[in-house]
Specification:
17 helices, mainly alpha
Length: 452
């Protein structure tokens, strides 16, 4: 247990972790309230309208992420976070006032979703890279895992609380409460001890720095594999706001409370995955691929569940698999990226991870309307299985890795070929077990050193 929460011994990270839980609860409350407002009040059960709202909220990531990553590499990350957290609080409060006044229309929600998406597009890469300033390098994997645990602990509470509040006082107050929760992160940021901050290298102003980040990623096949897998799964599978709303409302004929319950039950698996991730010293590329495959199987089973209760229970392994994939991808990229490039690389990752949502959400919404809500979940299962299988085949051929499972003493053995076989592997044959500290990404970096 001490190992799982080891990063909390650092004062600045402890402040951030506490403030983030409060703000994340508010964020999940707003997501549930926003989709429920659009689905039941402003569009009369339109999955497409919910999909468009989600697309507008995450669409700016496609446009702004690269620029935001450059800001994260250049500027003071704490000051940037103070600005973005303040802006998000203001936007949430303003939307709440509009709804409480009875003036909200569908286009208003679209506008606020786009504005909020623009701010979070800048906020995302900064939040991801700021972790490295609060903990030492050896604690980074644990801190990233605890960040996910914080987000999913909030996910466990937020949707259910939102459902109760929607039923009791309406969606407007949910938005206002979310706006107030950002005071927790602002307080945490202002109370941090400057002397205990670990300043990361910054990028000097120069032309072509965004292109430099693209070139860096293009030369890293391990990062490319992660981005492709996460991008496809995110596009078609991680649309829980939309699919849960459609399943609760249309397939099972339930209300806001049950919609919130689905989000909270899903978070049980997600929180479990986050806590397990916090214990890993070094995640691997193969964990990303394996988790994506597990997600495909689990979401396929969930889509077939006949009752609301069985569907809710089946969402637990879906949450576990999806969170494992996301946390392993995030940590692997951060730990294997040059610190001076980390902001730009993480921005490109966020562009793929969140920027895929504007493409996938309307498509998944259309599938839900045309073929039924179950198919909106099923399409995520099929695409996850395909991309995970494709990535595994490509990686085994590109890196020429052999995987063996030993039954007598259960463990996986990953064998790399020796140099001289045409794949530019290291001089000595490497045998790696699950307990080893190296990842396929680290091995790919070794390939490049040998090639040089």
């Amino acid at each position: 247990m001490r190992e799982t929460f080891s990063s909390l011994r650092y004062f600045n990270y402890r402040l951030w972790f506490t403030g983030a839980i409060v703000a994340n609860i508010g964020t999940w409350m707003q997501r549930v309230a926003q989709d429920w407002l659009v689905l039941t009040v402003l569009s009369h059960d339109s999955g497409i309208a919910v999909g468009v709202t989600t697309a507008l909220q995450f669409g700016p990531t496609l446009v702004l992420s690269a620029w935001a990553g450059l800001l994260a590499d250049r500027l003071d990350r704490r000051k940037l976070l103070l600005a973005t957290q303040t802006a998000q609080g203001i936007l949430a409060t303003a939307l709440g006032i509009l709804v409480l006044g009875g003036h909200a229309q569908l286009w208003h929600v679209f506008v606020f979703a786009g504005l909020l998406g623009s701010v979070t597009a800048i906020d995302g890469p900064v939040r991801q890279t700021f972790v490295a300033e609060m903990v030492p390098a050896e604690g980074l994997a644990n801190a990233v895992g605890l960040n996910s645990a914080s987000f999913n602990a909030a996910r466990l509470i937020g949707p259910g609380l939102a459902g109760l509040l929607i039923a009791g006082v309406g969606t407007g107050w949910v938005f206002v409460i979310n706006g107030l929760t950002f005071a927790s992160t602002l307080l945490a940021l202002t109370k941090m001890r400057e002397s205990e901050m670990r300043k990361m290298p910054t990028a000097a102003r120069a032309k072509g720095q965004i292109r430099e980040g693209l070139r860096y990623v293009r030369g890293r096949s391990d990062i490319i594999v992660i981005m492709v897998v996460v991008g496809v799964v995110s596009t078609f599978g991680l649309n829980f706001q939309l699919t849960s709303a459609m399943m609760a409302r249309v397939e099972f004929g339930r209300g806001a409370g049950e919609y919130g319950i689905l989000g909270s039950v899903l978070a049980i698996g997600s929180l479990t995955g986050a806590l397990l991730a916090a214990r890993r010293k070094r995640p691997r590329v193969r964990l990303v691929i394996g988790a994506a495959f597990a997600f495909g199987i689990a979401s396929g089973v969930m889509a077939l569940m006949p009752t609301f209760a069985s569907y809710a229970v089946a969402s637990i392994p879906v949450g576990l698999a999806s969170l494992t994939m996301m946390t392993a991808a995030n940590t692997t990229i951060q730990m294997n990226t040059d610190p001076a490039m980390r902001g730009r690389v993480m921005a490109l990752y966020m562009m793929v991870f969140l920027g895929a949502t504007p493409i996938g959400s309307p498509i998944v919404g259309w599938i839900a309307e045309q073929f039924g809500p179950r198919w909106s979940v099923g399409i995520g299962s099929v695409t996850a299985l395909l991309v995970a299988s494709g990535a595994a085949i490509w990686a085994s051929r590109r890196w020429k890795v052999e995987v063996h499972y030993h039954v007598h003493r259960p463990h996986l053995e990953v064998r790399y070929p020796p140099a001289g076989d045409g794949n530019l592997m290291p001089d000595d044959e490497v045998v790696e077990r699950d307990s080893a500290a190296r990842s396929l990404g680290a091995q790919d970096a070794a390939n490049r050193v040998t090639a040089a």
